[in-house]
Amino acid sequence: MNTIKHVFFDLDNTLWDFRKNARFALKELYIKYDVENRYGFTFDEFHPFYHDSNEGLWALIRDKKITKEELRARRFKEAFDNLGINDDELAAIFEHEYMETITNYNEVVDGAMELLNYLKPNYKLHIITNGFIEVSKRKIETSDLNGYFDTVTYADEIKILKPDPRIYAFAMEKSGAKKEESIYIGDDWIADAVGAKAFGMSAIFFDRLDDNFKMDDVPTIVHLDEVRNYL
């Protein structure tokens, strides 16, 4: 991969630890609104229902089956309903405050800063994210990630999400990169690895959840420091 000049990253769960930060934010709201005392369910009982709802809805967005607005309307309502809490007002409050609260927490994925410091002197660094644009901007600007990236491409800019090849083409144009000189690193097999390869870029799959997906010419890593084996 000695022809690579540009390294593109996914944001959530590749660099910015969404799962960890989301858990912190949700626990803050759970305590703030006294959910356990009001309804008898602990936070640890609630969290898996939220996680499953959110992950499933984001997969539907990626597959163009629902919109982001539908996700925002459904994720907390579904989580509370499935737990046995029928309180639409509480679900709406959580959705409204969650988007602000989550950026109060800015843990990055283990090894992210070490990798960026290793890559920065020799490569142009970029991000392509499907996340909500205003929240994603705050995640970068208020975390240790700020200042490392030449460009950030937000799906909301063009209303096209990974793995659609058009978002990769837009990122190439925005960054001035050529796909044959670029590599993409991300933790979502379909949106990141499959999407980048379909566009014609090299890709590295960051298999944080031990999904064990495989594709020819797509290396799999389980820790970010393994990127050094390829770049």
From TrEMBL:
* Record-level Gene Ontology MF annotations: 5'-nucleotidase activity
Q: Which NCBIfam families match?
A: HAD-SF-IA-v1, HAD-SF-IA-v3, YjjG_YfnB
What Pfam families does the record point to? Hydrolase
Q: Which Gene3D superfamilies match?
A: HAD superfamily/HAD-like, Putative phosphatase, domain 2
Query: InterPro entries from the xrefs?
Result: HAD-like_sf, HAD-SF_hydro_IA, HAD-SF_hydro_IA_YjjG/PynA, HAD_sf, PGP-like_dom2, Pyrimidine_5'-ntase_YjjG
Q: What is this protein called?
A: Noncanonical pyrimidine nucleotidase, YjjG family
